Amino acid sequence: MQPVKIVLGVIGADCHAVGNQILEKIFSQNDIEVVNLGVMVSQDEFIDAAIETKADAICVSSLYGQGELDCEGLRGRCIERGLEDIILYVGGNLVIGKKAFSETEETFKKMGFDRVFSPDADINNVSQILKDDVAGRRK
Amino acid sequence: MSTLKNKRLDDSEFSTEQKEVLATWPTGADVDFYEAIEFQKSIPEEKRFSSALAEANKGRKTLIQPRAGVALLNEHIDLLQALSVEADLLPTTIDAYTRQNQYAEAQNGIQRSLEAGRSLLNGFPAVNHGLKSCRILANAIEKPIQVRHGTPDARLLTEITLAAGFTSYEGGGISYNIPYAKKISLEATLRHWQYTDRLVGKYEENGVRINREPFGPLTGSLVPPFISHTVAIIEGLLALEQGVKCLTLGYGQLGNMIQDVAAVASLRELADEAFNSAGYSGYQLTTVLHQWMGGFPEDESKAFSVIALGSAVAALSKATKVIVKTPHEASGIPTKDANLMGLKATRQMVSLLQDQSMLEIKRVIEEKELIKKEVKHLLAKVFELGDGDIAIGTVRAFQAGVLDVPFAPSIHNAGKLMPVRDNEGAVRILEKAKVPMLAEVVEVHQARIKQRADTEKREPNYQMLIDDIYSVGKGRLVGRPR
Asked: Could you say which residues of chain B have pLDDT below 50?
């Protein structure tokens, strides 16, 4: 199988940089090719990079609470721009206030994300899930 | 680079710029500096930040202050009124869109929050709410309020909030750029913050004291004390040059008590020394400790221990104030009740330790002397790079990697300096990259790191650093291998 390629970044006006740098490291260690856009990435920047690099997935982080506003419409925008099949992941502290994770997961799945991860997700596990999802999508 | 200098802004240049700044969003039009002076003068003493800090400093007390901000005015007032029962000093944390001057997005956030019946913004969009609403807020709260944010270009926000009656203002041209921005140049932000500092200077010259607080913790991720201290002192020098007279310098708790107490103590001494030798006097200097800024345990009881450790450090180091975390920290923005719990836990610890200090302990003094040696060496290098001008020196120092902040998002930061915890959890330098350190100091750091490497029977490397980033959330300070 061709290596899995992802576009990675922190969405919106969010400048949390630490996790982003570590995600890049761990995904890379798991033989995933990472196009890291860093912090403060707009929806269009994610999509531009995904088109340009023919990525399998867009992995969005949000740590500052405004993820609900920033992520809305991303799936629709992907479809508009010809990325019907792209896998969308999101993870971090996605909403304002402490909520049950299942509630947050539902909110973001309704927005069109394939998987939603809490801030304590083990990235080695996520890497495996990602590879399986990509393999399924490529069939 | 042609125009940036550490020199007081010229009055006519300032007024031309002021007109431009106030025109960047419609709410700017309501600001009238002389009306604002009169309003500020009408604010009672007990609501002035500078007075509360002066009194605490005199009594060697540690004041407590939360972070808090929501999208809508009435909800924000309710929140601050509730917190004011436990807190000595209050904040207004500004949302992330306003921090990037995205006022249209902030407006959308206000609208969406109204519709949702809950805040969808992570702070209070003060520019959008404007002068009148901010003044309603300032009038409704019985304690001193500070603007807390992370805004590279905060000129309009400063104009509006100071005119509205806030008496303290956080930030600086380095500390609100390197950790909070991706591409904006240091020349630009240093200049923007000269404007903010000059405005505060103008208030001061008209008899209104506004407290200024450079943001101490920077990225909050294992930033060695000598790096954040050097930045804080530079921002202090830049502020003093513009006429600021009331400064609170900050530091983010790292976890090892000896290092943390020594850091707070050294910050005060180093700042006084640097300010005096640059020719400044007659200023009011205080300190702030930020409770642990890194990842927190999810479990709320465990989170309280982290909060308590920071509170203990603040009291034992005689920090003038402490910025308080909450048991919800692992999940992001806290509820009002969680915020209150953090304040109560902090108050209890700070009160218990109010009459004790660790400042006389031998190992604290040794650690303090180490930090002082490190800062003096680095600061001298920054001055040297600027041919004596600290603003120019700062720009060149970041370009050269001489000033280097771990885990910063800015492309203008080298990101080559690599910290790691030693065997007791103090943060040391594993790879100094281009940051100037005396050979004898490097030896101390290397020896401490070797103790840990020997204990763990592994090489110190990036993996060790990653382990240290997540360790507190997982229940220990040193990221030992599993």
From this structure: 1-2
Q: Which residues of A are catalytic?
A: 14, 16
pLDDT at B281: 97
pTM exceeds 0.90? yes
ipTM of this complex: 0.90
Dist. CA B324–CA B65, nearest whole Å: 6
CA dist B287 to A19, B145, B205, B308, B378, Å?
Answer: 29, 17, 23, 19, 21
- Write down the residue that tokens 């330790």 correspond to: B353
Structural domain for A95, as ranges: 5-122
Residue A132 belongs to a domain: no
Burial pattern B309-347, b for ≥16 Cβ within 10 A else e, equals bbbbbbbbbbbbbbbbbbbbbbbbbbebebbbbbbbbbb
Which residues of B are tagged catalytic?
99, 170
Q: If you count residue pairs, one on A and one on B, with CB atoms under 8 Å apart, how many are there?
A: 87
H or E element at residue B79: helix B73-83
Specify whether the CB–CB gap between B113 and B72 falls below 8 A.
yes
**What residues are paired with B290 via a beta bridge?**
B252, B323
pLDDT, residue B458, reads: 95
- At B441-464, the pLDDT tens digits run 999 999 999 999 999 999 999 889
Contact B289, B317 (CB under 8 A): yes
Helical packing angle, B225-241 and B390-400, nearest 10°: 150
Q: Closest Cα partner for B405 from B101, B176, B171, B97?
A: B176
Domain-embedded: residue A129: no
Residues with Cβ within 8 Å of residue A15, at least 6 apart in sequence = A39, A40, B150, B179, B180, B181, B182, B409
Q: For chain B, which domains are there?
A: 11-352 (3.20.20.240), 416-482 (3.90.970.10)
DSSP bridge partners of A35: A7
pLDDT at residue A102 tops 80: yes
- CB B122 within 8 Å of CB A65: yes
User: Which chain B residues are Cβ-neighbours of A40 within 8 angstroms?
Assistant: 100, 181-182, 409
Query: How confident is the model at residue B1, as a pLDDT?
Result: 39
**Helix (H) or strand (E) segment spanning residue A117:** strand A115-117
Structural domains of chain A, count: 1
Predicted local confidence at residue B482, as pLDDT: 78
Cα distance from B109 to chain A (closest Cα, Å)? 8
Is A60 inside any structural domain? yes
| Domain CATH code at residue A65 | 3.40.50.280
C-alpha pair distances (Å), A4 with each of A24, A32, A92, A138, B205: 13, 5, 22, 10, 62
Residue A106 lies in a domain: yes
The predicted-structure confidence for B16-45, as pLDDT tens digits, reads as follows: 999 999 999 999 999 999 999 999 999 999
Beta carbons of B293 and B252 less than 8 angstroms apart:
yes
Closest CA relative to residue B457, chosen from B473, B441, B480, B475: B480
CA atoms within 13 A on the CB side of A91: 17
Residue of A68, A98, A99, A104 for testing the chain B interface, max B β-carbons within 10 Å: A98
Among left, alpha and beta (phi > 0; psi -120 to 50; other), residue B191 is: alpha
Structure tokens at B159: 């104009």
**pLDDT tens, A67-96?**
999 999 999 999 999 999 999 999 999 999
Q: With bands split at pLDDT 50, 70 and 90, how would you rate the model's confidence at A1? A: confident
Distance of residue A136 Cα from the nearest chain B Cα, in angstroms: 32
- Spell out which residues of chain A touch residue B150, defining contact as CB-CB under 8 Å: 15
